[in-house]
Fold this protein.
Amino acid sequence: MAGGIVIVLLILIAIFAPLIVSWFGHPPAEWHRDKIDPAIQAPIGAFGGISWDYLFGVEPTTGRDLFSRILYGARISLLIAFFATLLCVVLGTVLGMIAGFFGGWIDTVISRAMDIFLAFPLLVFALALAGVIPDKAFGMSGDTLRISLLVFIIGFFNWPYIGRIIRGQTLSLREREFVDASRSLGARNHVILFKEILPNLIAPILVYSTLLIPSNILFEAALSFLGVGVRPPTPTWGGMLAEAVHNYDVAPNFMLFPGLAIFITVLAFNLLGDGLRDAFDPKAR
Amino acid sequence: MLLFVVSIATFAIFFLVPRLAGMSADDLASRYVGKAANAQVIHDTAIRLGFNDPVIVQYGRFVKGIFVGVDRNYGPGVEHCPAPCLGYSYVSQNPVLPDILNRLPITLSMALGAAVVWVIFGVATGVVSALRRGSFFDRLSMGIALAGVSLPIFFTGIVSLAIFRDQLGLVGDVADWVPFSEDPLTWANNLILPWVTLAFLYAAGYARLTRAGMLETMSEDYIRTARAKGLAERAVVLKHGLRATLTPVLTMFGLDLGLLLGGAVLTESTFSLPGIGKYAVDAISNNDLPQVMGVTLIAAAFIILANLIVDMLYAVVDPRVRLA
């Protein structure tokens, strides 16, 4: 349950990032060139200039406060991961239930689609898709556009993981007596699907969506690392690591803190997911 | 089938999506000319690259190139690109296929080397953990495995570069690729860091999968039978237990290896290895459709190939599967 506590803390940090930063930090986009050694463009002071004023030190070159950038990065990371997971769960559950419940050619088509998605050079593909979209499109621009785009890409490419599990569960659920009973009472297909089968799928949906969140966080970080995530100056953890590749030797803090932020977040969700799985499925223990 | 879907999807990304987002053929072409080009040059480029044709016609031209080859008019003369022709880069004008084939050995060495390390460590750790369930070793290794699946390669990669290359000077420069045939020692020395970091990431998943599978298999009836007929514990574990456990491990291995061969995008970007993954990233940042098409098709081909090999290995590993 340590995972759950860490997650609650992370969510609170993300929500109250502006408040926390107003007490302990500086605005995330504010430059502090006076904290930078102009000769080597590195932060002045030990380990990236860590001090009471700059808890995680400052960024090389710009001197922006790393503490507040990490906090604001949490907002982007969690926001995208949650909504992308929601999209995966909705797509995966609906399509998985339809495939498992109706069978026949519907099942064949959906299962084939899932196989193809699972055996797909996804990252290259997501990269290409995120790269070709211009800065203004679909009536949106700036961060709003990038965030919705990333949610769509990640959600759209990852739904088959959950879809496969839901399909398998539905296949066995539809043979159960209560489904027969409901049908003999004259219930229609959609009533059976949503009123009889769906409630029985809540446990696996909960477990696998918790396990999907960390992989979506990593996916978002990877896309940002490769430069197609949310655009600078909006801080993202992956984006910071991408810049840290070039100057980790003069500013180790710049590499360490975003990496640790990703690690702690992903680990917390993995722990929670494992815990939930053990709780709901004692056999897997 | 997969090849077809992948190629259609890549094409759609480059032509349909920008159209939906409201870009014209000339807007597309303006990406491939200098900043100072005037409207006429842009328009000519659009015509030369065939952007004004319907998307279907452009796709047909691409498929034709793969099966019968194409002739390319580059101004002073006509060049023939023979049968498996993946087209010419919009930016560098080089044919795509030779470029990719040149980079293939780098990605192959990196992926296969890492695969050997992660399979050996992952499966061995999983087996020992399952047999000594609840022991200190089990808890420690499963803790490390959980950490392993939670760490992105672009973080472990940079950290290991900082420690082992810059601080300790133990390994060579990863970006400095030396073919195996020229100097095997330098080859391995330069690649050891990507191998180990990549293997750490993957071994974690394999250890977890093997452990779960072994725990299930070892409680099966036929394991008791094997013990009852007096087989040595070693033979029970290796010949009866592990063999049945390996099937899901193999499935995962096929997918992972295929995806990795098709472009270890993150690994190669982290270590600046000039392999196929790096090529893909560069191609995408240049909006170079023929290069991206080439990489995604090669990647899909590797996934199919890896799955095929894995299907054949099933029969070797699991005696219950027999090929027809």
Q: What stands out?
A: Residues 22 and 42 of chain B are 17 Å apart (CA to CA). Chain B touches chain A through 50 residues (CB under 8 Å). The longest helix of chain B spans residues 96-131. The two ends of chain B are 23 Å apart (CA to CA).
